[in-house]
Automatic annotation (TrEMBL):
Signal peptide: none annotated. It holds the Pfam family PAP2. The chain crosses the membrane at residues 86-103, 115-134, 140-162. Residues 39-158 form the Phosphatidic acid phosphatase type 2/haloperoxidase domain. One of its GO terms (molecular function) is sphingosine-1-phosphate phosphatase activity. It comes from Phlebiopsis gigantea (strain 11061_1 CR5-6). The keyword Cell division does not apply. Keywords: Membrane, Transmembrane, Transmembrane helix. This is Phosphatidic acid phosphatase type 2/haloperoxidase domain-containing protein. It comes from the Eukaryota.
Length: 180
């Protein structure tokens, strides 16, 4: 029976191991499809979140845990987890956007979209953050610190957007992202 599930487990581990590539690719596709300044701002926020957490990492300089497979040991510092921080940013910003922001005209006009998207993003983000521990890349405190950083960063980034950033976004959208 266990042999039947081995390919599924291997595939899930592989997807979680390369979650940054999958999430980045999906984000780029959504930005290109919608041509939304708000979604581009969100994507830029993910990059900014990653950069700030990496700066904190270089300051703290806490090593990662010893990996069970020495060949897969990462060289960078572990505190706080960049994956946990950025994926928490994705989940928290998505929740806030679905709750408080108007739908972009390229997004399907159904009230269910505000429920479906977070119902997919939040469990996926949780799985990615937790996987950092069981894949051996981070300790629990490193993932928790990354999660806290992601929540804090989301608050700041979302606040900038709703307190006036969207006005610049609308102007950019009309000028550069308009569909012909």
């Amino acid at each position: 029976m266990a042999a039947v599930f081995r390919p599924l487990i291997t595939g899930c581990n592989l997807a979680l191991e390369h979650s940054n590539v999958i999430v980045t690719g999906l984000t780029a596709a959504v930005v290109l499809y919608t041509r939304s300044a708000g979604i581009a701002y969100f994507a830029f926020g993910a990059v900014a979140c990653s950069r700030t957490v990496k700066a904190v990492k270089r300051f703290i300089r806490q090593p990662r845990p010893a990996h069970p497979s020495p060949a897969r040991q990462k060289e960078s510092y572990g505190m706080p987890s960049t994956h946990a921080s950025v994926i928490t940013y994705y989940a928290a910003y998505t929740l806030l956007a679905c709750a408080y922001l108007p739908l972009h005209q390229q997004v399907p006009r159904t009230p269910w979209i505000r429920i479906i998207v977070p119902s997919i993003v939040v469990p996926w983000a949780t799985a990615i953050a937790v996987s950092r521990i069981w894949l051996g890349h981070h300790t629990i405190p490193q993932v928790l610190a990354g999660t806290v950083h992601g929540i804090f960063f989301t608050y700041i980034w979302f606040s900038i957007w709703v307190r006036g950033g969207y006005q610049y976004g609308q102007a950019l959208e009309k000028t550069y992202f308009a569909r012909s």
